[in-house]
Amino acid sequence: MYNTTKTRPLSFVSLAIVLIFPLCGYGEVNTKISPLDSKILVTIDGGSATKKSPIAQALAKKFNLVYIETGALYRTIAHVLIQAGIMPESKNENEINEFLEDAKCECLLEDWKIKFSINGVCLTAKELRAGDINANVAKYSSLFKSINDFCTKRTQEVINLKEIQEFNGIVAEGRTCGTYIFPEADVKFWLMAADSDKIDFRLNVEKEVDNPIERDELDFSRTFHPVVKPKHAVEVWTSSRSMEENIALVSAFVEQKLDLKKHSKLQKSKIMSSRHRQKPSPI
Question: In CATH, what number is assigned to the domain containing residue 85?
């Protein structure tokens, strides 16, 4: 069983140290180049009910980023499969594979959020969290590798949307964003919370009745694409501070990386401009 209660929270003193030494230890930041070039790619992963969605959405609004809720695609697939009578208990991998081969997936940008459509079905935020979906989505993803592969590939394709260029980048939240979907992300976060806080957040804030602890047990123990902390991810223990403090904490890292990106772009622009002005040498 996944247990986060023994993990030490990240204090604001630690934050200051990390910002001064961004490439050392606890707050190590990935230095690989993002496929978005001068734009930023942020991932937020973690267990159920660790406040991933509200934090990711706050980042999207604050820094003009496109928001991707990767779980929405898994949930849409679960809905379509349930409607087709293909339940996870059947463990019929061939039937699932045939469904995915024929499935038409579309990624749509609505305002600043990505919406996924499967065979013309695009669910609202409320519909995505219907009881039957909550009860089965983790079962589908833990039993069928092809579903994980399908969702990973389709989510990666969001980067190719031309509308992305109007934003400063992308923030993707879910369970495997920084490990399998966007391993090259500029900044990765790994959110954790005490089991009691997860249950409280799920029932009283998200107003859902499924058990986040049981959901984590399925996702953390599956044999393929298991949910793990991404390499170089900044750990954030969300139980020890308010939502506003959590948002301020992750915002500091994103702002630092955005500044570095903008500085790098400016320097590159100056170099190219200087080369353009240079007169050709005489032969």
Answer: 3.40.50.300
How far, in whole angstroms, is CA 12 from its chain's centroid? 24
Q: Which of 55, 69, 205, 235 is nearest to 137 (CA)?
A: 69
- How many separate domains does the chain show? 1
pLDDT digits (tens, 9 = 90+) for 42-67: 999 999 999 999 999 999 999 999 99
Range of the structural domain that residue 89 is part of = 12-277
* Predicted structure pTM score: 0.82
**Which token pair is 45?**
């992963």
- 167 token code pair: 């934003």
- 163 domain-assigned: yes
In a domain, residue 207? The reply is: yes
Q: 3-state DSSP call for residue 176?
A: coil
pLDDT in tens, 170-189: 999 999 999 999 999 999 99
CA distance 176 to 160: 20
